[in-house]
Write a structure and sequence with these properties.
Blueprint lengths: L2 H23 L3 H30 L3 H24 L5 H26 L8 H29 L12 H21 L4 H19 L7 H23 L2 H24 L4 H6 L26 H9 L3 E6 L1 H5 L3 H13 L3 E5 L10 H8 L7 E2 L1 H7 L5 E5 L29 E6 L19 E5 L2 H16 L2
Parallel strand pairs: 1-2, 1-4, 2-3, 4-5, 5-6
Length: about 475
């Protein structure tokens, strides 16, 4: 091993250490931001080292280096601009786009490596296996992530899109991709064969995500993130880059663990999620829709809610996607602070799949500077409902549907927040429309539940105004 190779290996090891430390710090909300910065620093170190090593050892052409500089500049500007301006409701879409970029870039690296190595006949399996797997996984990730982003953005329907023969077509495409991949492994190098793998994998990615409904969005985003990590790791093997191997393996492992946890939180297997069919996307009330059945529904106004909250001892706020859609995180934080200053104990009950991506509610509330120790996760929150005077549900639906405890419906067996165990329940929602699963929620007609029909932002602002009158009286 030459001195330069030793130095490069040592720097890559340092970068990998930063990746691991950063990932460890991301386990807790209070240290997640620092962990993110440390991991980003490790990646900057790895990228700069790779560029300098290539400059010293290979030289390159003006065209090659010009393309590299332009690509890096465009990517950096786009990434920074998007990350700084993205709305909280659009974070899942942005994550899906980043997944697509990562998977597509990894597949492109492998394809280019294959083209460069076609002078070997045949390619050794240590070279061809990572290349084929990278093209396969990266292409599925690229296409699937774009479709997922389209669904989340509303460009493509959030409902499960299943047409006659779709699953048979999915199997056929998968067989073509795998068959061409085997041919690429054991036959003479042929760019056209690898191109078949790429096209079939792209088609499979589209067909895999189209049948997935809105309720499964958090899991599929996490699954595609795991795919991105695997594709990056394969790219590292293809071009013999340790930093990519380590970073990709960490992302793949973390994404896989998170995917399994999300699936468990919904009581669904990853296989059933990939087959799709759960959830109907957003079910927002629309002008001119059929009149809703308000029989047995107890309607409240802002003053009614304010009285309950002002005279309560323990309040649990249950955030859902409606809070994110209305961008009402600052209003709910203001309400909580107002109650806390009045001596009311306030906590947030967080369901792991509330919203459209893992940790969506945690990120949303953190943006409004809600203290991390006020956010209770599922088990801890359910223990707190027994002593809760008022549970304020803001834009959540399926994650607190008591029908999950009964068999034979779309959410059967799904772990839920036991909101119905609170002494009193207030649901702030625009309408009685069902959530992602497309079924009614008996919590809304429970005698102890009062419905406050309003947009979350305006409704919370009205409640804050009303509470101020009572706490200052």
């Amino acid at each position: 091993m030459s001195t330069s190779e030793f130095v490069i290996g040592a720097i890559y090891l340092a970068a990998a250490t930063l990746f691991v430390v950063g990932l460890h710090l991301m386990r807790a909300p209070s240290t997640a931001r620092r962990g993110n910065l440390i991991s980003a620093g490790g990646m900057v170190l790895a990228v700069l080292t790779t560029i300098l090593f290539a400059l010293v050892t290979t030289g390159g052409t003006w065209v090659g280096w010009g393309s590299l500089v332009v690509g890096a500049a465009v990517g950096a500007v786009f990434g920074v601009a998007q990350a700084r301006t993205v709305k909280m409701t659009a974070v899942p879409q942005l994550v899906s786009i980043f997944n697509a970029v990562g998977g597509g870039a990894a597949a492109a690296v492998a394809f280019a490596s294959f083209v460069a190595d076609t002078n070997q006949t045949p390619l050794s399996l240590t070279v061809s296996i990572p290349i084929v797997l990278d093209v396969l996984i990266g292409s599925v990730t690229f296409a699937g992530s774009l479709i997922a982003a389209g669904k989340l953005q509303g460009i493509i329907s959030g409902s499960p899109l299943i047409f006659p023969g779709s699953r048979v077509l999915n199997v056929v495409v998968a067989v073509i991709a795998l068959g061409a991949g085997v041919r690429a492994l054991f036959g003479p190098p042929d760019v056209l064969v690898l191109l078949v793998v790429l096209i079939a994998a792209l088609a499979f990615g589209v067909l895999m995500v189209l049948p997935i409904g809105g309720a499964d969005a958090p899991v599929i985003v996490s699954l595609l993130n795991a795919f991105t990590g695997l594709a990056v790791a394969m790219a590292g093997f293809a071009i013999d880059n340790q930093a990519l191997i380590i970073a990709g393996a960490l992302v793949g492992a973390a994404g896989t663990i998170l995917t399994l946890q999300m699936a468990k939180a919904m009581n669904r297997s990853v296989g059933s999620i990939m087959l799709g069919g759960f959830g109907t996307g957003d079910a927002a009330a629309s002008t001119g829709s059929a009149p809703e059945d308000l029989t047995n529904v107890r309607q409240l106004d802002a003053d009614d809610v304010a009285i309950q909250l002002a005279y309560a001892q323990h309040v649990l706020i249950v955030p859902g996607y409606g809070l994110a859609a209305a961008q009402a995180q600052h209003e709910v934080a203001e309400l909580a602070k107002l109650l806390l200053d009045h001596g009311v104990d306030v906590k947030y009950a967080i369901h792991p799949v509330a919203g459209r991506m893992p940790g969506h509610m945690n990120v949303l509330l953190a943006e409004a500077n809600v203290p991390y120790d006020q956010m209770l996760q599922l088990d801890e929150a359910n223990s707190a409902f027994d002593t809760c005077d008022v549970a304020l549900v803001v834009g959540a639906n399926d994650v607190c549907n008591p029908d999950a405890r009964k068999p034979g419906n779309a959410v059967s067996g799904m772990p839920i927040l036991d909101v119905d165990r609170a002494k009193s329940v207030v649901v702030l929602k625009r309408s009685m429309h069902p959530g992602y699963a497309g079924i009614g929620n008996p919590l809304f007609t429970d005698p102890k539940t009062g419905m406050f029909f309003a947009d979350a932002k305006k409704g919370l602002a009205d409640i804050v105004t009303a509470v101020k009158e009572y706490v200052t009286a």
